[in-house]
Every structure is written in C-alpha cells, then in structure tokens.
Design goal:
With 434 residues, the protein is of the alpha/beta class. It contains 13 helices and 19 strands. It has helices at 3-16, 18-30, 39-51, 105-123, 145-153, 162-168, 218-234, 273-293, 313-326, 345-351, 376-395, 400-406, 415-426, and strands spanning 56-60, 64-70, 77-83, 87-88, 99-100, 131-137, 177-183, 187-189, 192-203, 207-208, 243-250, 257-258, 261-270, 297-306, 332-334, 339-342, 354-359, 362-363, 372-373. The chain has an 8-stranded mixed β-sheet, with helices on both faces. Strands 9, 11, 13, 14 and 16 form a 5-stranded mixed β-sheet that branches. It is elongated.
Length: 434
C-alpha cells in the first residue's frame, strides 16, 4: 500500500470518529484541572485509549500515561505527545473554580486520541516499521509553585514540569523522535527560551522602626539585591533573549516595624543550556552576597522549569510538507521567530530530536480571559491528521526518514547528563555541575 493510501486510511479513521474526538476536547474544557492535579482528565484519556484496545501505563509523573503501538517490525520509536493541564484564570467567563483551558491543552489531548485512532488503522496495513508511543504529558504550565514544591518535598516529583518529570522517570529512554501540536493562530513551529523559577527569602531581625539600630532590616538585603540584579542585567544587555523578571511577593506587613522577612519570586530565561546555567549561578551570587552585605540571611529555592527548545529542522521540514499536503494554501511559519516564552517540550528536545508544532483554531489572547476555541474541527482534527501523517511518513519504506532523524539523538545530550544539569540548577544534593 502506498503512503498516499495510508494517509487516506488514517484520515478516514479519524474523520469517522471526529465527533468523539471533539467531544473529548469539550469535556476537558468543561472540567479543567491544573498541573499534577489532572486526575479526571487523565482518566478520561486513558479510558479512550483502552476502548481502542490499547494497554496503558498509568500514574507516570503522577497523572501522565503512555500507550504503545508496535508495528512488529524493527525501526525507530516515535513519541506523539498531548497536554491537558489548564490555567488559574478566575476572570475567564467559563472558568470552573478559577480554572480554565485558556491555552488550549484540551485540544492537544483530544488530538492525541485522534492520532491514536488514525495510526491504529494505518499500522494494521503492515506497511510501517518501528513503534509509536502515545504519551500524555501533565503539568506543562509553570504555575502553583507552592503546591509543586510540596510535591517535591514529599518525594512525589523532582521536576515542576511534566515532561521533565517523565524524562526523570525514564519513560522516554527508548524514544528516538518526539513531536506534538499546540493550539495557536497559525501552522508552524518556533524555538523557545528555557527558564528557571526562584523563591528568594531574606531574613533579618524585626524591631520598632523608630529604633532601627536594634534590628536588621530585611528590606535592605532586597534593595541591594535589586541593584545587583540590575547591574548583572547590564552584562547581558546585548542579548535579546536573556531575561530576569520578578515580583516582591512579601514586602512586610507594618510600616512601623522593620521587616525580618522579605520574599521575592523571580523567573530567569535564556536561550541555551549553558547560558541558563551561567545566568542561574551568577544571579544567585548577586543575591546571596547582597544579603551578606546587609547582614541578612538568604534562602534561594530554585526550580528548573524548562530547557530551551531547539526544534529539529529536518523533522520540522517533514512537518511543513505534511501540513502543505493537507492544507495547500496554509501559511506555514518555519521557525521565523525565536519566542521568549517557554515550554517543557524543550526538555524533550534537549535529549531527543523533536518538534513542537502549532495549528490554528483559537481566538483571543493566549492565557487571557478572552481565549476560546474558535474552530473545534481545526483545533482537534487537524493535529490528529497531521500527527498521524507525519508518523506514517517517518515509518514507511523501512522507516528511512525516521531512522535518519533518529540517528541525531546520538548528537544530543544524554538523559543522564540532562538530569545532572537540572539537578545542579535546582540545587539537589549530590548533583553534578553541568
């Protein structure tokens, strides 16, 4: 059977169940859950895969899962990923308990199920080689840091983002190629910054503000640190990608008391692993020595959020070809803009050739109260067809294209090295310096 016939077979299988696929996305929209809390969402998706005849590994990264489809012939293992966590946005008109899918991850998850439907039909033809893993990835959004810190302290996770945690749990050890789709206003893919999140606590000695000599003002440490951070920023003034940004989340409670505890929340962003590690270490030094100069204590808790994403360009070209076959008039953004935003797909792309694709179908502003799915057919069915067709293209003809792209995994960072670097960033005991 030709590749074109396999495309038709896969497309037809998806179209025949398009109502079911869209209903999954709408169900998730009505019942949003934030990261590492997606118990109902995960169960819904797992049930859909089991009803298709898949055996599903559950409770990966708390609420993640994996189902494999083996062609029975040797070849690369491809992971197709889907996200399903929502955002805290109480102002959204359809928020449920303050939570809404104002980033469209509900459609990403539905597209994953649709992809499984299409590829199950294609694999039954006997024309493909290798294995396909359908992986549900929780907790992409870097939110609810206090909750995720609690999960880390209790030993349930060591990464605040789901894909990073899946890598830690060795769920992706056998994966050779990975890709997914995210709802957007366009077709295409783009590279992204990496980032870390920080909670900084300065401690001093409280006293009556009329007798400051009797205390140690934690605000002094914060003020010195803000100046040091500003001067450090000058070192990166020629970079349009390195960013430090933060807030004072606790600046004291009473104007007539010298505060003994000040808290700042910060996020650091950079475009390479090396730069992210460097910025992280220099930032910590600026803050710690500012506290020392002000005779204050300082605690910095660093949480790795995401590695920079550098999409595999050959895989991206195959994605473009696939989109143009389905939608000949599509304006495909072939990595024209480097985004300052972040995604934990960067962690996957650090160790595996990967691409993070976009499909249109949304309206409003991403992460905004005006965000809605404008075209459910495009948002859910397009990614299913594109994912399935891309996998077919990689695994047909003795998986020639897939083997070539998979071969570049050897040139990327090893998973052990990756874990060592993010452990160093997060300050875990015994972590090797990256």
């Amino acid at each position: 059977m030709s590749k074109e016939n396999l495309f038709c077979l896969s497309d037809s299988a998806i179209e025949n169940r398009s109502s079911q696929i869209i209903d999954i996305a709408k169900d998730l929209w009505r019942n949003p859950e934030t990261g590492y809390r997606e118990v109902r969402s995960s169960a819904l998706l797992i049930s859909a895969l089991e009803n298709l005849g898949f055996s599903v590994r559950k409770n990966l990264a708390i609420t993640g899962f994996r189902a494999d489809l083996d062609t029975g012939k040797p070849g690369p293992t491809i992971a197709i990923m889907g996200e399903y966590d929502a955002l805290l946005i109480p102002s959204h008109p359809e928020a449920v308990n303050g939570v809404a899918h104002s980033c469209g991850h509900n459609t990403s998850a539905a597209g994953l199920i649709g992809t499984a439907i299409g590829l199950k039909a294609a694999v039954e033809s006997g024309e493909l080689c290798g294995k396909i893993a359908f992986i549900g990835t929780p907790a992409e959004e870097g939110i609810e840091l206090e909750y995720r810190q609690q999960l880390i302290r209790s030993g349930k996770i060591r990464s605040i983002s789901g894909k990073s945690q899946l890598i830690r749990e060795r769920v992706l050890d056998d994966i050779d190629i990975a890709f997914m789709h995210h709802l957007s206003g366009k077709f295409g893919f783009n590279d992204h910054n990496g980032s870390v999140c920080k909670k900084i606590i300065f401690t001093g000695k409280s006293c009556h503000a009329s007798a400051p000599q009797k205390g140690i003002n934690a605000l002094n440490a914060m003020n010195l640190a803000l100046h040091a951070i500003a001067l450090l920023r000058e070192s990166y003034s020629n970079s349009d990608k390195v960013r430090f940004h933060g807030i004072v989340s606790d600046g004291g409670q009473s104007v007539n008391i010298l505060p003994d505890r000040i808290v700042m929340d910060y996020m650091l962003r950079a475009e390479t692993v090396e730069k992210l590690v460097e910025v992280n270490d220099r930032f910590d030094n600026a803050v710690k020595y500012s506290a020392l100069a002000a005779e204050c204590g300082c605690e910095i808790e660093t949480m790795h959020y995401s590695m920079p994403l550098y999409d595999d360009l050959e895989l991206g070209k195959e994605l473009e070809n696939t989109v143009k076959e389905l939608y000949p008039d599509a304006d495909f953004d072939f990595n024209k803009t480097f985004y300052a935003s972040c995604t934990d797909m960067g962690d996957v792309g650090t160790v595996i050739p990967a691409v993070h694709g976009y499909v249109p179908g949304m309206t409003g502003n991403s992460h905004g109260k005006d965000y809605f799915v404008a075209d459910w057919q495009m948002a859910c069915i397009a990614p299913a067809k594109i994912n399935a067709r891309l996998a077919i293209s990689l695994l047909i003809d003795d998986a020639e294209k897939g083997r070539r792209i998979a071969g570049r995994k050897a040139d990327l960072m090893s998973i052990d090295e990756y874990i060592g670097i993010i452990d160093h960033i997060s300050g875990f005991p015994g972590a090797a310096r990256g």
